[in-house]
Design goal:
5 strands; 21 helices; mainly alpha; globular
């Protein structure tokens, strides 16, 4: 570099000569800057920007001058992964997310058999889900930190192997060691935390804008579908093989397959490449947390998702048992046919799958259509879904004593409305948070939503059910049904609170999205950020903005 005149003279010029590199149109591009790739931008004190501003002698010297470089390497960072590999990556991550949720809800599909085997109460049954969620949320920040700094595919492979091994081991715990079974179910959260905090960020780094929304919608189909398959596969495998333990031996085998696919087909993308942030680096973990706490749309959407987690966590564990009790109440005569628990789990699983497909698809498509006119459409759709689901869930609980078909229909509608938000919440997080903080943001959201949501809701429902039943004998339908019914009314109330949180997020999401985009491409900290200048300088290696064309 023999001649470079900084753009601080009266004529505000940029001269570039003898810089290493070859034409940016060539197949191989060196680390050079080319005159054809540059333009000058002068940011004046009133924060406006012009590309053809004539400077005057009275112009203040503290005007900020920035070189904007169209860096061909930014585009190459994304395109170095072929389209076939990108779509294969999404398919593999979808498959892993599917078995992730299958494993999580297999226990709910065979809950009655587990209760009989270990001779436990409702509150102890609720601890099975709570123990898993506790380890999952506590370890998520650790994996979020690692995911923002180290190879994400390696972290996922190690986590899946651990999770599969622990799940298999839990199926061999004898009936006199419920505490050990509870402990192993908690350890399953270690493996899932290593995956759930990282996988969405990989999708975000290979796709952007509307294509990212589509891919995230496909990825999050796995939540309701995998949950439904957990009920179905768990109950049917247990019924076919004569023991509930076999239900826990399906997902470990699929986990081994997924590790092989990850190793062979999935490549680690550059962080932020899809958004033009190839010069982004890391700041301290405390700076990351400070950034997230001040991101209002992220915090409000996380609070809304916490309410979703509370309601769905409680429904996922208790709804099949509640439906069994409601049918027994309707068929109270001695001549009534016995209720097949496996059939109820199958029906509930099928409804969950169908509601998931419908809800995620409708939510994603609605967002793509409405964003053009309403930039804050995503949180508004989430708010609409949650608030609209409340009356359907409430009425379903009331009419369950009288009509099982009507109850199933109301549950389907309510769950479909709840599922509108699954992919949109993830999309909001990914576009209001910069690439190098996304895994930490995922972890923070997991910690918050589970700590205040489904970590306690299954146990809370069990405790409330036991409290409402009072001194009446347990396992007696005429007492057990109304006590569980009253306890589950709280899920409908939480949907209203979640809708309010998403409405609050809609007030800030446009501003926060623009701030994240600016930070990703220029390294310029948002005006209200307290991140130190030394940390900001570590985020970018040069004041260069990469533009993806």
């Amino acid at each position: 570099m023999s001649a470079f005149t900084p753009p601080f003279d009266d004529h505000v010029t940029v001269k570039l000569h003898d810089m290493a590199g070859i034409s940016s149109d060539e197949d191989v591009v060196a680390d050079g800057i080319f005159e054809s790739d540059t333009e000058k931008i002068i940011k004046v004190s009133d924060h406006t920007t012009s590309t053809s501003l004539e400077p005057s002698h009275n112009q203040q010297l503290n005007n900020v001058v920035e070189i904007v470089v169209r860096n061909p390497n930014a585009n190459r960072a994304v395109n170095e992964i072929s389209n076939r590999t990108k779509y294969a990556t999404v398919a593999i991550l979808l498959f892993i997310n599917l078995i992730n949720y299958m494993d999580r809800f297999t226990v709910a599909g065979v809950l009655l058999e587990i209760e009989k085997y270990y001779k436990i109460s409702d509150s102890e049954s609720g601890l099975l889900q709570t123990s898993f969620i506790m380890s999952y949320m506590i370890l998520s920040p650790i994996f979020g930190y690692l995911g923002d700094r180290y190879n994400r595919t390696v972290i996922m492979r190690v986590g899946i192997i651990f999770w599969s091994g622990i799940t298999l081991a839990s199926s061999f715990v004898p009936k006199n060691l419920f505490g050990v079974f509870l402990f192993t179910r908690g350890l399953v959260g270690v493996g899932e935390a290593s995956y759930s905090t990282i996988a969405p960020t990989i999708i975000a780094d290979i796709f952007s804008k509307d294509m990212r929304t589509k891919m995230l919608a496909i990825f999050y189909f796995a939540i309701p579908v995998g949950s439904g398959l957990g009920y179905v596969v768990g109950a049917q495998v247990a019924k076919a093989l004569g023991a509930w333990q076999w239900a826990l031996r399906v997902t470990p085998a699929l986990g081994v397959v997924s590790v092989g696919l990850l190793t062979i087909l999935v490549r680690e993308p550059s962080r932020g490449a899809a958004d033009g942030g190839t010069h982004l680096g890391n700041t301290s973990w405390f700076a990351d947390l400070k950034y997230l706490v001040k991101n209002k749309s992220f915090m409000w959407s996380s609070l809304g998702f916490t309410c979703v987690a509370f309601a769905t966590g409680a429904l996922a564990l208790w709804a099949p048992k509640f439906m069994v009790l409601s049918i027994k109440i309707q068929n109270a005569s001695p001549d009534a046919d016995p209720v097949d628990d496996a059939t109820i789990a199958l029906i509930f699983g099928a409804i969950t799958c169908a509601a998931g497909f419908a809800g995620v698809a409708i939510g994603a498509q609605s967002a793509r259509m409405l964003r053009k006119k309403y930039p804050n459409a995503d949180p508004l759709i989430c708010a609409f879904g949650l608030m609209s689901s409340m009356p359907f869930l409430f009425i379903a609980l009331v009419v369950s004593r009288y009509s099982t078909p009507l109850t199933w229909v109301l549950i389907f509608i309510g769950m479909t409305l709840i599922c509108l938000n699954w992919s949109l919440v993830a999309d909001i997080l990914l576009y209001v948070v910069i690439p190098t903080r996304r895994s930490t943001a995922e972890a923070f959201q997991i910690l918050m939503s589970h700590l205040l949501g489904d970590a306690g809701s299954p146990y809370l429902i069990g405790v409330l059910s036991d409290a409402v039943r009072g001194d009446h004998p347990a396992k007696v339908t005429i007492y057990e049904y109304p006590s569980l019914q009253y306890a589950m009314f709280i899920t409908a109330f939480m949907c209203v609170l979640g809708g309010g949180a998403f409405l609050a997020a809609s007030l800030y999401v446009v501003k926060d999205k623009k701030a994240a985009e600016k930070y990703s491409t220029t390294g310029i900290e948002p005006p209200d950020s307290d991140t130190s200048s030394s940390e900001t300088s570590s985020v970018v290696s040069a004041p260069v903005r990469n533009e993806i064309t």
